[in-house]
Amino acid sequence: MSEKNNEKVSEAQIAVHWKEEGYFEPPKEFIAQANIKDDKVLKRFSMENFPDCYKEYADMLDWYKPYTKILDSSNPPFFKWFIGGKLNASYNCIDRHLPKYKNKTALHFVPEPENEPIQHITYQELYVRVNEMAALLRDFCGLKAGDTVTLHMPMIPELPITMLACARLGIIHSQVFSGFSGKACADRIVDGKSKVLITADSYYRGGGLLDHKEKADIACDGALKEGQKVDKVLIWQRYPGKYSAKTPLVKGRDFIVNDLLKDYKRARVEPEQLPADATLFIMYSSGTTGKPKGAQHSIGGYMSYVTGTSKYIQDIHPEDVYWCMADIGWITGHSYIVYGPLALAASSVIYEGLPTHPDPGRPWRIAEELDVNIFHTSPTAIRALRRVGPDEPAKYDYFFKHMTTVGEPIEPEVWRWYYNVVGKKKAVIVDTWWQTETGGFLCSTLPAVHKMKPGSAGPGVPGIYPIIYDDEGNILPAGSGKAGNICIQNPWPGLMMTIWGDDERYVQVYYQRYNKDPKSKDWHDWPYFCNDGAVQAADGYYRILGRIDDVINVAGHRLGTKELESAALMVSEVGEAAVVPVADPIKGKVPHIFVSLKPGVKASAELEKKVTDTLASEIGPIAKPAKVWIVSDMPKTRSGKIMRRVLAAIANKQDTGDITTLANPQVVEEIKNMA
Ligand code: WT7
Q1: Are 189 and 173 in contact (CB under 8 A)?
Q2: For residue 358, cis peptide bond before it (omega within 30 degrees of 0)
Q3: Between the chain's N and C termini, which has fewer beta carbons within 10 Å?
């Protein structure tokens, strides 16, 4: 903290060196067709109208029984929405669309092998398959409302079918990302106390058919060691009628879903009429350390919020072909591949494999073939596609009206490639900032209303009131040039109800820091602490700097790692960049920068110097990296996040810890050998 004669530098006060970027206008053609064409919505969702404004989202759903109270905030921070109301998520995503849209495609499934035909599943077919699966879950597994079941399924249509079958009965699903190990799945089975695991025999990723069933055995063994016995493992076949894994079935425990379903032909299961505050699913946050935190999401609040934001921010109409390239194993996929788009009767694309397989033109061929007009992906995927196929989009004839970026801050340089090359200067872009815990978007521009600004998420979305505090709890106003900790002042329907089985942790991680009175029954005293650093420009737009620990303190000067990386990407040869803090006896910490190069570019001392000079000129001499590491690739999680922790361990000559869940552990060895 402060020294007597030194200028006081608060912990949250991160030096901000980003340059202000210019604005981009939303295209006129987009505005003409948008669901929200003007800013009246902001008035409707103003703080004076809170919480009643959220009725607008709840009214987008069908309710069996209307709610009597919009928000019950009598026991903060445990908020309950749409109290007294009853509904069913599966009914809202399927049944209610049948009169008008039964022959319309609900899901387009694109297998990774390009010679396999795309499957187009209509709303009627989805209805049939979800009913039959629900009957199986009820009658064969004996599952009922309030039970939990763990899913460890890849990107195949049977994943949303299984989720919606669970939702039909009120069974709480907990889907674990398929790229996660059997051990990670075991931890989540134990935490969720599931007796049933639903998985698949195999799936394609990067050109090979992976044996996925072997992870189920590891998961069940691991769970048993922790005292949780899995009674039944249900296995979907990637090729119905053919078992395509090498790992044998365990007798009495493992069952092939495709065989069992024959007994449930034409079964119909009435959707359960469930209370709004019953649990729809658990989703574990993607944190890489500590015990996984299961964000527990409600039916009524969550469904209202993802439906409303899909309509207003994603601008989904029933006519749209919408492709979110995320994995359904993450919250993005739950909210913005499955529940939001299907509640709006859109056609949602599910792609099985790697975006760059067999070549970086693949996404644009899919877009061309299916006439995708809304596209949604992450900066990681955009960087990868830019790195290996910068000129590919121009070769294909597709038209995006709307594009999303989500998951991490996007460097303005990468944003501009997305806009100019992928969007062909015709698509509006939304940079949506949110979290597993928040159910849906927190900050984004309204696509037809606000101007876009590269690198900035934008203002709070309708009904969300962010605020930035410094470490002492002082408000940092817009335009202060100072970064702090971003919080949301008010609760909203998409917010998780709690951390599964750990109310105390929910309070401690997300509220304790800025709650002044733990006894207060007034929601105003319970701002939600996002654990992200952010800065608000004079125009009110928020720029998210990432997790608050992604900050390097160089001789008392606080640098956001993201801004250094962003500057490095201005060097045209650089494909990806990652900055980590390295201990230094004099300066405390110094930055090391890891860069991977675009294809065909060779590493050289000149290039290292170019990166160093660019950081110095863009940010200042203080940002000069002590070392530039030119690497062949970055160590990444299966969801594509660069593992800065691993790079930092190598640069600091420490143990890298467990790297088995990485997508490419071999890169770690290679980088270690450079040290
Ligand atoms: C963390 C949440 C939200 C769904 C996918 C990730 C970072 C997310 C942005 C964005 C800058 C972003 C934040 C956040 N983040 N979106 N548009 N700009 N940073 O969900 O795995 O729960 O991660 O991702 O640090 O806290 P998640």
Answers
A1: no
A2: yes
A3: N
